[in-house]
Fold:
Amino acid sequence: MTLTNLWLEMCREKCRSNPRTIVLPESTDARTIEAAARLAMEKAASRIILVGQRDETMNLARSHLGTELCRALESDATWTGDDAGGSEALAQLTRGIVSDRASRRGKVMDEESLTRLSTDALWQAGAMLSSGRADCALAGAVATTADVIRAALATTGVAPGLKTISGSFIMERPASALIPPAAWLYADSGVVIDPDVDQLVDIAAASVKTWTDLVPSCGFDASGNRPVVAFLSFSTKGSARHPAAEKMAAAARLFAARHPEIATDGELQFDAAIDTAIAARKCPSSPVAGRANIFIFPDLGAGNIAYKITQRVAGFHAYGPILQGLAKPYSDLSRGSTPHDIFMSMLVNLLRA
Structure:
């Protein structure tokens, strides 16, 4: 059994031992339906809610899936649009939550917008999450990241103490005869293009939460699992003088002041963050000293490029994007996701719930 299969089994077992409800607004996407059917077969969720009509989804399932998967989906899933009363109730729920959250932000929604958004599947999924009718939500196989984030923010809001939504990836290094298994977290790799110091601190705090939700519980990492945060740059502890490097140093100082219980440092070059021998030369007194497992990048370009290089060249497995910083786990998908990618994201979100 490979490490990936072992981790997948650990994820399944954790989800089975503490089953939660997931809501899926993209009920007419064949990849999402296949992943949902597999989730049903695996018994990894207590309830799978599909926003839409049962007939439309099942017709699609029958044209793409085998009999066993279709049977599992039809027997275990529920649909929000199976009766007119249920559809109307969900629209009213969504309308009330969107209107209430808007008024708390000092905004007034016009009637036309409220009517339109109350029947939008992304917003309805967020309303179910916000009201406790579901524990997590997942979309983005069809919808854009911007649409998913907009719906999630309007219905669930940000997590207490945070102002920034960000995207992270868990990067898994498979074991070999010479190299032990490991897991890292990269952020922000999906949302904030050019974060300032306060946003970087929020991104780091949300990343620590994602790490503690996912890694220790699944046995992902063999090195103790405690979060160790590195704020990355092209400079290590003042080796180069530039505002971009100072931004990361300032973020590291502010994060350390707010979270003294977490090992953190910056600005650090990547080699000093992961290699103890190099850290001994470049930053011997660093509390990170080559042991980092959470990497905060200076901008979206660096984070996105790094995760793809790590995945494609270094052979790591990438799990994400994980949308973090929201009050409830409503996560995004790549529109290029395979059914397996979506299934894995379902497990990840159920574990975060």
User: Anything to note?
Assistant: The chain has a mean pLDDT of 85. The CA atoms of residues 94 and 304 lie 33 Å apart. The chain has 14 helices and eleven strands.
